[in-house]
Amino acid sequence: MSGNSFGRCFVVTTFGESHGPAIGGVVDGCPPGLELSEADLQRDLDRRKPGQSRHTTQRRESDRVQILSGVFEGRTTGTPIGLLIHNEDQRSRDYDELADRYRPGHADYTYEQKYGLRDYRGGGRSSARETAVRVAAGAIAKKYLAVRLGVQIRGYLSQLGSIRPKVFDWEEVERNPFFWPCAETVPELERYMDALRKEGNSIGAAVAVVATGVPPGLGEPVFDRLDADIAHALMGINAVKGVEIGAGFACIEQKGTEHRDELTTEGFLSNNAGGILGGISTGQDIVARIALKPTSSFRLPGRTVRRDGMAVEVITKGRHDPCVGIRATPIAEAMLALVLMDHYLRHRAQNADVTPPLAPIPSAPRREV
Amino acid sequence: MSGNSFGRCFVVTTFGESHGPAIGGVVDGCPPGLELSEADLQRDLDRRKPGQSRHTTQRRESDRVQILSGVFEGRTTGTPIGLLIHNEDQRSRDYDELADRYRPGHADYTYEQKYGLRDYRGGGRSSARETAVRVAAGAIAKKYLAVRLGVQIRGYLSQLGSIRPKVFDWEEVERNPFFWPCAETVPELERYMDALRKEGNSIGAAVAVVATGVPPGLGEPVFDRLDADIAHALMGINAVKGVEIGAGFACIEQKGTEHRDELTTEGFLSNNAGGILGGISTGQDIVARIALKPTSSFRLPGRTVRRDGMAVEVITKGRHDPCVGIRATPIAEAMLALVLMDHYLRHRAQNADVTPPLAPIPSAPRREV
Amino acid sequence: MSGNSFGRCFVVTTFGESHGPAIGGVVDGCPPGLELSEADLQRDLDRRKPGQSRHTTQRRESDRVQILSGVFEGRTTGTPIGLLIHNEDQRSRDYDELADRYRPGHADYTYEQKYGLRDYRGGGRSSARETAVRVAAGAIAKKYLAVRLGVQIRGYLSQLGSIRPKVFDWEEVERNPFFWPCAETVPELERYMDALRKEGNSIGAAVAVVATGVPPGLGEPVFDRLDADIAHALMGINAVKGVEIGAGFACIEQKGTEHRDELTTEGFLSNNAGGILGGISTGQDIVARIALKPTSSFRLPGRTVRRDGMAVEVITKGRHDPCVGIRATPIAEAMLALVLMDHYLRHRAQNADVTPPLAPIPSAPRREV
Amino acid sequence: MSGNSFGRCFVVTTFGESHGPAIGGVVDGCPPGLELSEADLQRDLDRRKPGQSRHTTQRRESDRVQILSGVFEGRTTGTPIGLLIHNEDQRSRDYDELADRYRPGHADYTYEQKYGLRDYRGGGRSSARETAVRVAAGAIAKKYLAVRLGVQIRGYLSQLGSIRPKVFDWEEVERNPFFWPCAETVPELERYMDALRKEGNSIGAAVAVVATGVPPGLGEPVFDRLDADIAHALMGINAVKGVEIGAGFACIEQKGTEHRDELTTEGFLSNNAGGILGGISTGQDIVARIALKPTSSFRLPGRTVRRDGMAVEVITKGRHDPCVGIRATPIAEAMLALVLMDHYLRHRAQNADVTPPLAPIPSAPRREV
Question: Where is this region: Disordered (chains A, B, C, D) (predicted)?
C-alpha cells in the first residue's frame, strides 16, 4: 500500500534513507536451489555506484552488500533474502539549510504535503540512493533468468541531451563510463559533460533496455500486461518522465501495414511490438526506452518557497550527478529483470502445465531503438 | 495475479469476452454514501460505445450497464458494486477462419502460447470490448473525485497520424466524433479517415489526459509513484505503446534550469513535471500523453503462420476501428480516474490525520501537451 | 482492501446483497483447459440451497448459476470466470421495521458504525446468502483438485448442540438433511430441531472438513501457513467462532510424546498435526473443525437500541435457519477447496521445478475429529 | 505470495533464520509523526526473549533491535522502518546430525518436500526465533494504537497442560515468568515445569489475548472479517493448533437466547461475540484464545525416517522451551496489534469521512476466557 514493495511473486521490499545508517531490503519468493553469493550482486552494484568517473557524483560509497538470510551452503533456500548496505560517506550538514525550504523540481514539497514532515538530509527516502537495493535485488533476478531460462538483459544510454550514438555496438557499452554504445562519440560526450559541470547545470537523457531470450507467454491480461508492468517499473525510477515499448511514440504516425509484425515460419519479420502482443511476450526481444529528466540538483540558484510560505532562493549544495541518466542504465536493467522474473513466476502459477499447440516461433533480429 | 483486477483500495475486477453472453465487473472499496445511479455510468459508456460515427466500428452495442449491488436507496453502501453489460451484436462466424491462424499484430499467438487454447471469437478476452467495464468503473471514480474533491478529468485526441490540432479549445472536444480540440482541423481528419477506410488500412494516434484540482500528496514512493501507476494504467490500455508525463520525452534535451518548475507564493511557474514530483502529486494539473498503435485489424492481407506451423495469409474480417485512438479518449480518462481514486484512498489509509506545515501552493496554468 | 476478494492466485471476488437483483462473482486465475460446465457448480449449490428440508429456512431460491465468461467450448480458457445467480424469493417487507433498529447478535449495528448507512433488507451484504457464490467458486476449485491432483474434500456436521454422532460413516453424510455421519442418531436430531423450531430458538453446531490426497509441500511460511490460511477462510464463514486443526484445543493437555506424529517408512503413525507441519502440508489428511454460533435470527424478543439511541425490543421476522451449522457443511468444503487451490498455485509459482530428495511418505489413516 | 509479509496497509515483512547472522524486517505503512525509539520495541522483545527463567530455553540472546530507517528526529516519517537483530548465541553443531533426518512433529520433512533443500541449523526459517521480529513490529503497532486511539492489548497464559488459574488478576501477569494471572497457582506451575524438564518431555498450553478500547467499525466483510484476520494472525504463530473468539467452541452448545449479546443504552449486556459482529468490531473488548501444541523439540527419542528413506530414531538436542506457550504471550499480543493496526488503516482508506448515525454504545465488561 505504501509503495515500498515491488512484484507479486518475486517481491522486493526496500528500506532506507540517503543519510541513515544503512539501506537494505528483502527479496521474497526466489525459487530455491539457485547458486548465489554476494559477488553475484556486487557486480551490478559496482556498475551503478557513485564516483566511478568525474561525470557522476563524487560521493564515495563502497556499496558492499551483505546477504543476511535465505542462502545456505551457497544456494537459495526459498526463504526471504535479507540485504544490507551500509551508508558510509554522508555529509548531512550540506543539507541543513534545506530543512525549511523546498528545492524546485524535487520531492521536498510533495513529501511534506504528504507526510507533514520529512528527512531533508540528501533527499531522505526520495534520494536515488535507494536504487542500490533495487540493483542488488535485480541481480538475483538476472542470475535466475540467465541460468535457468537463458534470458539476457542489457541496457545502454541511447541519448544524452541532443547527442545520439552514430553506430551501435553492444561491446562498447561496458568500455566507457557512460554505458554508451558508440566509441566514436564518447569524446563528444566527455566534452559536453565537462562543459556542463563548469556551467553548474544538468541535462536529460534516454536509456534503452533489451531482454533477449524471453520465453513467449509472459504477461497477464488485462491490467497487468507485461508492457504495463514494465511501464510501471521503469516510470518508478527516479527522474523518468516517459516510457515506450518497441516502436513507441513513433507508432503514432505509422499505418497498420507498416506497424504489424508479420510472422513466417522463419520468425517475425520485424519487431515494432517490442516483443509484446496483447500484453504477453512473443519470444522476440523485449525493447523499452525511457526518458530521464535533467536532475534538479545543481548549484544555479532557483526561486522557491519556504516552510513558512515566504519566497526565497535556493542553491542545491551536496554532490550530485549532472546527468542522472548515466547511472540509470543498471537500474533500468534491474527493474526490467524484476518484472520478467515476477511475470515468469506468475505465469507458472496458473500455467505450469500448459503445452502450447505450436512450438515458439524464432525471434527476429532486435529492432535497435 | 492473473491481472484482471486493478487498484489496491478502489479495486476494479473485470470479466468477459467479446463474443460471450455478457461482460461485467466488480468495484470494491468505493466509499459509502456517494449518490450513484446507472445514468452516471452511462454517459461515459455512450462516449466510448461503437457506431457513434462512420469513423469507428459499425458493431452495434447499446452498452446498457446494470448495477447489481452496492447501491441502496440511491447511495453507495460501501459494499462491492456489481456491474453487468450484455453483449448484443455478435457475429461470431466472422471469426471462424481465425480459429487456426494467428493474425499478425494481434494477441492470437501469445494467448495460445500462454494458455494452450483461446477463444478466437472477436479476440475473446483480448478484445477492447473489455474496456467498456473499465469506463463504467472509471465513471464511479470520476464522480467521487468530482463531487468530493473537485477533481476534473478530461482527455482529447492530440494527434492522428501526422495531423495535429492547430489551436486548442476544451469546448470543441465533445463537439466532434474525434474528441479533437480544434474545430478548424476536423474536416482534415474526416477526409483522412475516409481515405484510410477506403484503403482498408489503419493509423496510429496520441491521446492526452489531464486531471485538474488534484490535491497534493497523492502517490506512494518508491515503487508505486503516482506517475508509475499512471504509466501502468495507461500502458495497460489496448494498443498503447508509450506513456509520458509532463514534458515527457522532450525532457531528454532539456537542461535543469529549463526543466525544473520554480515555485513562488503565487504558484509554480511552469509544469514540466506534469503535476508530479518524487512520485507525489504537487496540486498542479496532472498531464499524461499516450501513443496508440495502428490497429492490426484491417482487411489488407498479411503473412502469418497457422496452429500447425504452416505459413499462410490472413485477412481480418469483422467490424473494426481504423483508428483505435479515437475511442481511447474516455478509456484513458477512466484509467486516470481509477489511479487517482485508488491513490486518494491509499493516501488516506496512512495519512488521514496529517496536517502539512504549508498550505498548498496555487496551481499554475496547465501545460498543453 | 475492502475484503470481498479471497486468494492470491486463485482469486474469488463476490458481490451482491440478500435482497438485491442478483449475487455473483469472478474467479480469476483458474488454470486453462479444465473441463467445466454449470452442472459442475450446481451440485454443491443444490446441497447448500435453502428449503431442502423443514429444518432450514423456507426461503425458496433455485440458486441457478450462470457462467458468463472464461469457458469456451467446454473448457476453461485461463481468463476470468464470471458467475451470476439471480435472487428470486425476496420478501423485503419483512425487514421494514429493522430499518431503524439493530438486532442483537447481528451485524446491523457494526455495519452502520462502519459505513454510516446500511441495506437493512435481509441483512444486506452480511447475509449468508453471499456464501452461495463461494460455493459456486469452490466447486471449480474442487473439480480442479479432484481431476488434476486426486484431492477429495468432504465435510460433515460433527455436533449439534450437545448431540454427537455415535458412529462415523462417510456414506451416511449425504443421506440425511443434516450432513450427519451417523444414521442411528438422525431421529434424535429431528426431534431436537422440531422442538427448537416450536420454541422459536436457535442452536450452535460444529462442522468438520477433511481433505484427502493433498500433495505435501503446500503452504507458505511464515505468515501464510496453510493452517493460518485455513483459519482465515473458515473463520470468515458467517457465524463461525472457532477453528481448530488436527488435535486442536485438545493439544493443550497433551505431552510432546503423545502429540508428535512419528514417521516410519509405512507412513505417519498418527495425525495430531491435522496434515500440516510448520504451516506446510505433510500429505496426510488435512482435518479442520469449526464452531458455529446459534443464529441471532429467531422470533423470541430481545433488547436492543434504535438508530436514535432509544432502547427498544426487537423480534426478527423473516425466514431463517434455526441451526446455521447444517447448511454450513458445503460452505466449509468450498472454503477449504479455495485455500488448497490457491496454495497449490502459489506453491507452483516458486517451486514448480523442485524435486524433493525423498518420495512422499504414505499418508496414515485419517484421525476422526 | 511466499508468505513472509503480513498486512495490507501496515505491512510487516520479516527475514532471517535461527542460525544466520541476523534476523530483521521492514514495517511499511506506519503513519508519520509517531514518536518512536528503539526502547519502545525493546520492552516487548525483552518479555519474549529466551533465558528469562529456568522454564524457557537457555539460549542467550540479547535481542537488541536496531531501527535502520523510517525515523527522523525521534518521529516516524511515513517511510519504511528497517529493523535488525543480530543472532549471537548459535550452537549450530547441535544440529549437524539432523541434516539427513526429519524430526517428528517438526517442519523438517515439509520444508524439504516444498523446497528440495533446507537450512537444518536450529530449524532455519521455521524456528520461532523469527517471531522476535514480529514482536518488534507489533510494538510499533501497539504504540500507535495506544497513543492515538487509546487501545490497550494484553495477553496471559490461560492454561498449561491441565492447570488453570483459580482467580484472575491482570496485575499478576507481569509478576511471574509464566504470564500467569493467578499468584496462588504459580508454585503449582513451577513444580509441574520442573518435573517436566526432568522427564525430558513437553506440554501444551493456551494463551488469551484481549484488546480494550478498540473503536467500532474495524474489519472488512466478507472474507477479511476482523475475526478471520485474527484467526489468520494467531494460527500463523508457531505451534498454534486452534483459535477461538469470544464464546468460541462453547457456542456449539449454546442456544440463541443465551448467545446473542443484547444491547441497552448502558452498553452490551454480555460479550459472547468477543467484540466482533459480522466481522466488524463492536467497540467491546476483543477476546481471542489460542491452543499451543507441546513442542516436538525434546530429548526423548522418536521414530522417523532419513533423507534416503531409511527408518531411524532421532533425539532433538539443542536448547528448547519445554512449553512454548509461555513465551507465546507477547507474540500473540504482537499479532493482535498488527491485525488491529492494519484494519484501522484499511478502514480509514474507505471510510475516513463516515459519521455513524449513533454514538458508539458503551463497552460492557470483558468476558474472561
Answer: 41-62
With an 8 Å Cβ cutoff, are A223 and B205 in contact? no
In the three-class reduction of DSSP (H, G, I as helix; E, B as strand; rest coil), residue C325 is classed as: coil
CB contact under 8 A, B348 and D346: no
Residue keyed to cell 533480429? A365
Task: Give me the mean pLDDT over the C125-130 stretch.
Answer: 93
Residue D193, φ and ψ in degrees, nearest 5: -70, -35
Length of chain C: 369
Residue D366 has pLDDT above 50, yes or no: no
Q: What is the pLDDT of residues D60-71, one digit of tens each?
A: 788 999 999 999
Picking from D14, D82, D119, the nearest residue to A15 by CB comes out as D82
Question: Across the interface, which of A106, A244, A358 has its CB nearest the CB of B242?
Answer: A244
Shortest Cα distance, chain D CAs vs residue A168, angstroms:
41
Query: Any idea which residue has 510501471 for its cell?
Result: A232
pLDDT at residue C364 in the model: 55
Provide the b/e sequence for B219-236 (b: ≥16 CB within 10 Å): bbbbbbbbbbbbbbbbbb
What mean pLDDT do residues C315-321 have? 77
C281 annotated ligand binder: no
Q: Do the Cβ atoms of D251 and C204 come closer than 8 Å?
A: yes
pLDDT at C53: 83
**Domains of chain B from N-terminus onward:** 89-351 (3.60.150.10)
- Check the annotation: does A54 bind a ligand: yes
Q: Is D349's CB within 8 Å of B29's CB?
A: yes
The label of the residue with cell 442418531 reads C185
A-D C-beta contacts closer than 8 Å: 158
Identify the CA nearest to D131 among candidates D244, D293, D18.
D18
* Average pLDDT of the residues in C165-173: 97
Contact A129, A24 (CB under 8 A): no
Please name the chains neighbouring C, where neighbouring means 3+ C-beta pairs under 8 angstroms.
A, B, D
Helix H, strand E, coil C: the string for B83-141 is EEEECCCCCHHHHHHHCCECCCCCCHHHHHHHHCCCCCHHHHHHCHHHHHHHHHHHHHH
Asked, as a colleague might, if the bond just before C222 is cis with ω within 30 of 0, I would say yes
**Nearest-by-CA chain A residue for C221:** A79
Instruction: Of C113, C299, C110, give the one whose Cα is nearest residue C201.
Output: C299
Q: What are the tens digits of pLDDT across the range D282-322?
A: 999 999 999 999 998 888 999 999 999 999 999 877 677 89
D280 pLDDT band, cuts 50/70/90, is very high
CB atoms within 10 A of CB B96: 11
Q: Which residues of D touch A125 (CB under 8 A)?
A: 69, 77, 79
